[in-house]
Each structure stands twice: as C-alpha cells, then as structure tokens.
Amino acid sequence: MADVILLLEDDPAIADTVQFALRREGFTVEHRGWLAEARERLRQAPAPELLILDIGLPDGHGLDLCRELRAGPLKHLPVIVLSARSDEMDRVLGLELGADDYLAKPFSPRELVARVRALLRRAQAVPAASPGFTVDGSRVWLDGTLLNLTKLELGLLLKLLAAPQRIHSRDTLLDAVWGSSADSGDRTVDTHIKTLRAKLREAAPARDPIKTHRGMGYSLEP
C-alpha cells in the first residue's frame, strides 16, 4: 500500500502539479482545498502519512491547522508547508508552529518529492530512545529485559515504535507486517497484538504501553 499524502492547497494549478509529481513516484494523494475539508479528513482513520499544506486558504490560515495538529493525537504527523511567503520570518514562524519543513513557491516538484521522502524516512525510523525500549536490529529490550518475539510480533512492535502515540489502523499494520496476504485480516492483527501485549507485560508487569483505540486501531504510549 502506498504512503498516503494529504494535500491542502486551494490553487488548482499547483494542486495538479503536486499530485502529478507525487503520484508518478508511487504516492497516494488526497487533495482538499478548504481547511474544513482537511480537518474532517484528519478525523478519519487511517490517518495520512504526511500533510502538505498551503498557508493562505479560503476559510483560514494553514498554520492554524499545524498548531492544532501539534496539540492533538496527530502531533507526530509530518507537515510540509507550501507558501508564496518566502521571507525568513515566515519560515521561522511556520517551523515554530510545528511544521517539519517549509518550501517557498514557486518550487521544484522534484525537490518537493525529495523532501517528502526524507520526512517519511525520518518519521518511519525507529526512535533511538523510545522510553523503556532499546532496539538493536531484530532484538528489542523493554526495561532491560530482552523480548522473545516472533517475526510478526517484532514487525508490529517496530511499526508502533516508529511513531509513538500515533494511531495505526489495523489495515496499516496489516499492510506493514503481512503485506498483501489475502489470508490475513483484522482478527490476525488483534491476535498478534494480544500476544505481543502479554510478552510486554511479562517483561515489565507494571507497564501496558499498547493502547487500543476502538474502531481506529492501536498506538504505543511509552
């Protein structure tokens, strides 16, 4: 399954350019032209992997959405700001309000794709020091105890560790760990999450870092 990019841009020509460049590289792009539409999409599961947003929109300021994201459950969602405002103060403001990157218009579509790839790599990399967890290749320790995990349990845990506190839908976990196997489904994910939870509790009885979000999926709350 391709990474899903949410594009918030009210200029049709720019939106078409961005969508063409990203789709050509294998990304799935969902386009919205209004803040209200983007807010509605971000309330739905699964969440996109990355947000590209314009600052000047018909129904508000794009950085308001960035500020909201950083205070909510999608606070780890990577954000790239596209803006015609290219002076230093505007870039600094965007980054201070939580944007991960800032690209001034006009921009090179190839540079945008490169920045998207770089941000996704950073977002999907396992953090070096998730509280309590230590990762060394295919080995994971919790509070100093080496976890005896199956390959599938390891895949689930690494996916959750890659974006702590982010809600991962069952479909996202299924695709990341099992790939396109037609024999797997939501129950498969739930079953392996259950056994993974048991092993985490065995290693650290006072902790239960995997949180269930009814109807949405799972997150790691280290």
Overall pLDDT: 85
Q: Any idea what the radius of gyration is? A: 19 Å
Are there runs of 5+ residues with pLDDT below 50, and where?
none
Largest sheet: 5 strands, parallel
- Strand content bin: 15-25%
DNA-binding region: 123-222
Domain Response regulatory: 4-120
Protein name: Two-component system response regulator CreB
Keywords: DNA-binding, Phosphoprotein
Notes on the protein architecture:
Helices cover 42% and strands 21% of the residues. The strands form 4 sheets. A 5-stranded parallel beta sheet has the order 2-1-3-6-7, sandwiched between helices. α6 (151-162) packs across α8 and α7 crosses α8 (186-203). The protein is built from 8 helices and 12 strands. β8 and β9 (139-142) form a beta hairpin. With 222 residues, it is α/β, with parallel strands linked by helices. The two termini are 27 Å apart. The chain is elongated, with a radius of gyration of 19 Å. Residues 4-120 form the Response regulatory domain. Residues 123-222 bind DNA. It comes from Pelomonas lactea. Keywords: DNA-binding, Phosphoprotein. The modification 4-aspartylphosphate is found at residue 54.
